Amino acid sequence: MAEEFEPKIVAFLCKWCSSAGADLAGVSRMEYPPNIIPIQVMCSGSVSPLYIFSALSQGADGVLVSGCHPGDCHYMKGNYYARRRLALVKKLLEYIGLEPPRFQMSWVSATEGVKFTQLIKELVKELQPLGPQTKLRRNF
Amino acid sequence: MVNLEQLKEEAKKILSSGKIKYLIGYENIGASWQVRPAFICRPEDVDRLVWTPACFHNLTRFIHDEKRKRAREKNPDLRPIGLIIKGCDSRSINVLLQEKYLERNEVYLIGVSCELAGVIDETKLRNHLGGLKPEKILFGEKDTIKVIVNNEEREIPAPQILAKRCLECPANYPVIADIILGEKIKRNPTDRYKSISQYEKMSGPERWAFWLEQFSRCLRCYACRSVCPMCYCDECVADSIAFAVTAETTAEEKAQKIRWVERNPEPSENIFFHLVRAIHLAGRCVDCGECERVCPVAIPLRLLNQKMEKEAKELFGYEVGFDASQPPLIACFRDNDPQDFIR
Amino acid sequence: MRRTGVFVCHCGINIAGTVDVKKVAAELAKYPGVVYSEDYVYMCSDPGQNLIIQAIKEKKLDTIVVACCSPTLHETTFRNVAKIAGLNPYRCEIANIREQCSWVHREKDKATRKAISITRSIVEKVRRNESLEDVSVPVTKRALVIGGGIAGIQASLDIANAGYEVILVEKSPSIGGHMSQLSETFPTLDCSQCILTPKMVEVAKHPKVKLMTYSEVQEVSGFVGNFKVKILRKPTYVDADKCTLCDECTKVCPIVVPNEFDMGLTGRRAIYIPFPQAVPATYTIDEKACPGMFDTAIACGKCADVCKPGAINFDMKPEIIEVEVGAIIVATGYDLYDKSMMAEYGYGKYPDVLDGLQFERLLSASGPTRGKILRPSDKKEPKEVVFIQCVGSRDPELHWPYCSKICCMYTAKHAMLYKHHVPDGQAYIFYIDIRSGGKNYEEFVHRAVEEDGVLYLRGKVSKVFEDNGKLIVWGADTLTGKQIEIAADMVVLAMAIRPSKGTDELAKKLKIALDKDGFLAEAHPKLRPVESMTSGIFLAGAAQAPKDIPEAVGQASGAAAKAVAILSQERLFHSPTVARVLKNLCTGCGMCISVCPYEAISLKESKAEVNEILCEGCGTCSASCLRNAIQVKNLTPYHIQEMIKACLGG
Ligand SMILES: Cc1cc2nc3c(=O)[nH]c(=O)nc-3n(C[C@H](O)[C@H](O)[C@H](O)COP(=O)(O)OP(=O)(O)OC[C@H]3O[C@@H](n4cnc5c(N)ncnc54)[C@H](O)[C@@H]3O)c2cc1C
Ligand code: SF4
Ligand code: SF4
Ligand code: FES
Hints:
The structure holds 3 protein chains of 3 kinds. Helix content of chain A is 37%, strand content 16%. In chain A, helix 1 packs across helix 4 (113-127). In chain A, strand 3 (62-67), helix 3 (78-95) and strand 4 form a beta-alpha-beta unit. By secondary structure, chain A is an alpha/beta fold. Chain A has a 4-stranded parallel β-sheet, sandwiched between helices. Chain B is α/β, with parallel strands linked by helices. In chain B, strand 1 (23-28) and strand 2 (35-40) form a beta hairpin. The model of chain B has no long low-confidence stretch (mean pLDDT 92). Chain C is elongated, with a radius of gyration of 32 Å. The mean pLDDT of chain C is 94. In chain C, the strands form 11 sheets. A 7-stranded mixed β-sheet of chain C has the order 20-26-21-22-23-24-25. A 5-stranded parallel β-sheet of chain C has the order 10-7-6-18-28. Chain C has a 4-stranded parallel β-sheet with strand order 2-1-3-4, sandwiched between helices. Chain C folds into 4 domains: 4-133, Rossmann fold (3-Layer(aba) Sandwich), CATH 3.40.50; 142-234 and 321-333 and 500-567, 3-Layer(bba) Sandwich (FAD/NAD(P)-binding domain); 337-498, 3-Layer(bba) Sandwich (FAD/NAD(P)-binding domain), CATH 3.50.50; 578-632, 2-Layer Sandwich (Alpha-Beta Plaits). By secondary structure, chain C is an alpha/beta fold. The longest helix of chain C has 20 residues, at 108-127. Chains in contact: A-B, A-C, B-C. Chain A binds chain C through residues 8, 10, 19-20, 22-27, 29-34, 37-43, 45-51, 54-55, 58-60, 74-78, 81-82, 85, 117, and chain C through 70-72, 96, 98-107, 110-111, 113-114, 117-118, 121, 513, 533, 595, 597-598, 616-620, 622-624, 628, 632, 635, 637, 640-641, 643-645, 647-648. The structure holds flavin-adenine dinucleotide (FAD), iron/sulfur cluster (SF4) (2 copies) and FE2/S2 (inorganic) cluster.
């Protein structure tokens, strides 16, 4: 059997909830595919659309931004701004024809190790059939 | 209908009062139907002014030049500058006010209502006249446009030759101005986002094919950016921009700048550039159509900006350029902003 | 080029079990800019730390990355190590290859590859880090306590006794809060006034306490350690220093309004002392009641005429006093739920339907009936009294979903005290269930049932109406399923406890959050119950949630300890990874200002400027700036860009 495609996913995780949730998945010794490379940011609100475009341009097959659930942001409001800003990014990317699973956003709290594990598994599953992301990748 | 004599009268009045530094309006290019921006400094020059359906330029863009100039001058003349503005242009003024780029007292605004017409689309006009050259283009009665061809006056129903954006315009008369000429007749567009609907209906791969073809043509001449009333930044993130330089920053680091996107007109870079532009214009673009008009390779840039405009309205109830006191689109939120896309 | 050192920890087999640590170290050694790369079994152990210190010194490293467990665990450890070795602590970063790598993957080669990517990205980050010094600010060694109920009094005393100045602001003319209205207190039945009055006096006399009654907080700015507060002192029109408490004035004042201290069961004059033990002991002219105040045409002035010491001064003006404080405690207490919401129980319609505080006043020896239980309507002794619990509480559909917590106990107390006053009477209590968690509380309820024959009926009352001079109470006993009808002489409603009126406005001024029910929100329900989300502002008493006296006092002392922890510092320190503005890029659009959750940014000469003390470094501003003109130190777009590159490379 041909080896399955291994998508590379850049995940921007907020320090207080999603990165802590990912830590919990580790502490609980859960298992998920190693396709994601986490970048810890302070808050989902700090993720600029440029980061997402940049990750795609540098060859990410998928990008995830994950923050605290609404109302739980350590800084109270950051995730609300992120939600609005990134909704526009998602619409824009899909509008130019990028496959929707390539850019995703999630809420993962510090207690949701299980959700995080599940999410990564699903993400990889959704990205595998799409193959490498070449649309926005810099190719020179 | 906007009375041109009255327009000149108002222009003369304000210029003679010495209250403004100069007035930017429109004038004919030679004897042709075409117009260009006119900088009027003296009351006696107001006769150059015209107001026709060919006045597509958004003159607010010239504020950038004026501001840059003032920043360089030692003792700048700080009197407001006068501008003739259409509905769409007035909304861009509002955005500039909202972003504190401009103070209200830095401009004197003579608003002109497009009433039931607007500005023409050159291609549509050309097709309509089947190769004949227009001599003059004027506003007609109600929603018609008068075109003089071979000394003969033709009354064309405006929708047939109007720019698409005018047919989709939510503000056919200025929403902010010192005086408004012409009638404030509200024309409600039947479909505000008509231009993009056909592309929204396409499948993902179809859209990609479409956009790839469009973006591949981009020359990165940046005409769109130069003409845009919102692109007033001195340094654009699409060029390489500086990062914080501290005592510890090495020479090597100083030489390096963050470069989000390469200058090469490669498809990947062109797309990146236009994505950044679209996202940075979300909640700011007023659909004056200037970028699309000046693009030398006819990339339909309105389709990107209008998409963002529509999403802002549908997802967040946000309308651009009607209220200078509201916070910008991405600098506010509602507790119940949609989040069905979030897992 | 920086000289970066990489230290890969095995964490026993925790990392080494799934990640080939040797390979990680070897791969990183090849990475540009890395001049030293090493692995070790336990980096956090003493020998591990020494290894790092030595390498920094010997190899002249200027930045280090420790690839180990989550930064939440050992970031501080390794930053200290860096410091010991003479590096700025912010030149050390952690690559999390345990929780987010070795522990969640099983295939060694893939996990190793991922560990390499993570570590490389952190190398790219640390190389761009600046040396930073913690931000520090001096502390104003003074506290503000808002609300002079028992919680506010206790907090003020604790802080003052620790040696710091306190400003205690109370909006009514006297401190004491609701506790001053209570008769006797559960579970010991000691007289409320008797235990409260000494504390009121103590706080008023305390040399470190500045008492400001009849005052309200108007504006708050600043931040932890350095708040600036504007306090509005309303005019009382009576000079407290001259007033001798002779009480001549109330005898001549022609105006009578409901007495709020007696919950409207009695009247008071327009000039009044809230209650005899009031602190400060003086009179106040109620602006809203005195006709001379709102209508200058009416020149009454009777009180001034009889006031021998000449204490009355109609020209007194509101005053705004500005103070600076380092910490704030909010102890604004509660009010009872608005009774007009309970039309089905006839409150307001029938004079003999009372709320709990009115009943407290009836029980009180100094109350309207001098401690005799008499019906307000005909001043007769009620022989059958029905108490209804959970009125407006635990009712998510119509009223409030939460439990008001203290009503079970005070209703038991009420029924018990009623029986002590009227031994031949009968007390019924309608309840959903009895919540008597608390020291000696359960015993207290048992005493009510067993010694005083209080009849507990489990069920809900559907209606109260008047019939033939009696209050007919219709209810259902949910234990027996029977309908119950009681012809009562008096009905007492245990109304839901609500945050005191004006709590929402005050919260806005303080920029602190409210919970879903309108009480002040604590920073963490378990671990930070006395802190608000805003640093330097603490919560005490019933303003945070319904509480009885011991709990209110306990929380007040907790809040005071937290405040003292701030006031006892010379300077406060704060993480230096805050936002910075690149002035040449900033256009002054103000988007960052709108989004900053801490109001840390302002415009100075049309450019954004960050107050480093307020900034928490969340970076929300940086993502909203279209020009990358505002960036959080050590996690700038430049850092991120290079990190992404390293993540994806190879
Ligand atoms: C009927 C009844 C019986 C009770 N019986 C008992 C009992 O037997 N035993 C027991 O332990 N507990 C009892 N309690 C509970 C007790 O009353 C409270 O626990 C206690 O009063 C809480 O104190 P506090 O200081 O938090 O609030 P409060 O007593 O409400 O004091 C708050 C103070 O803050 C002031 N204030 C409010 N807003 C502002 C503002 N914006 N600015 C300045 N000042 C402000 C108010 O005027 C008030 O003085 C009973 C409660 C009720 C309703
Ligand atoms: S958002 Fe950016 S450009 Fe606007 S004021 Fe803030 S730092 Fe300046
Ligand atoms: S980093 Fe956060 S707290 Fe600091 S200025 Fe920016 S938005 Fe405000
Ligand atoms: S801190 Fe997690 S989203 Fe803001």
